[in-house]
User: What shape does this take?
Amino acid sequence: MGYSASQPAFTVVLMKIMLIKSKLLFLIAIALSKTAYAQENAVQTYFGYVKLAIFELFSSLRDLGMSTKLAILAGLVSIALIIYFRTRDTASNNMRRARDLHKKASELHDSGNPQEAEDYYQKANTYREKAETQ
Assistant: This one.
């Protein structure tokens, strides 16, 4: 004899199953929300530390003399110019990139990575051709 929806035992079993499933879903939801909350808190904490460090940096800059501020500004401008001149697309920079990539490819080839070395050789050749057309 099987159970049918009209029998009380079937209803009780079905209700217990539904209760167990709902408890399980509730526990999963809590676990996932705690993980998400912890990740969000970690990100907020990190950005809070960065924000605090930047604020302290700028507050300490206010206490410096004008000549020190100008020296810091000159140093930052020098760094920016060096980065600009080393990364712009000129023939000499492309040849330098080709030389660096060729050197890296040779080292990889000598260490036993011919496949990876071939990729570097191809990149070096691309930069070399680009430099020759400029």
